[in-house]
Amino acid sequence: ETGVTQTPRHLVMGMTNKKSLKCEQHLGHNAMYWYKQSAKKPLELMFVYSLEERVENNSVPSRFSPECPNSSHLFLHLHTLQPEDSALYLCASSSRGYQETQYFGPGTRLLVL
Amino acid sequence: GDSVTQMEGPVTLSEEAFLTINCTYTATGYPSLFWYVQYPGEGLQLLLKATKADDKGSNKGFEATYRKETTSFHLEKGSVQVSDSAVYFCALILLSGGYQKVTFGTGTKLQVIP
Fold it and tell me: Which chain A residue has its CA at the smallest distance from B6's CA?
């Protein structure tokens, strides 16, 4: 297994459900990111973890809850979502320098009914 | 604040045509500049990057030059193929508090027809 993996690839959930998205990186990076990609909008940075500590939270609603138990794993816990939360959720990882490339996973396509 | 502006798509070209996708930026510091590509159903993949003024990034026949004087990073390819059909994102990265702060453009969809 190489690169950045995400599971599940597709998820359909009701507004009262609780689910979690998982991201795993095998690149030895020490920073991980969650992005939201909606149609016709720029990628929105949701959360940044650097050395397993959350360093950025871009005013994301509390129904999204991230968790980073170690430098290789990142979770996004979802509860009581709204239909407008339907989107592609992308995970990325990088080393910490500004010249370093962010490597992206394939994303989880989420549909909230 | 920092921002990236890309040309609106979709861009439709015939195979072997010349491609230019414009990208301009505003930034408060000295960013690194990136082009990412997203194929249908996939995440973003790095296409090329440049980390300082006048650097040229290149990969798979694509090129882009970091122009500080015009704050631009236009993507070019001399002869596109059908397999280049994808969405292309321009991005800038600055360091903020010890971690990367990334700003993406809205993406430009490229359609190459045989």
Answer: A42
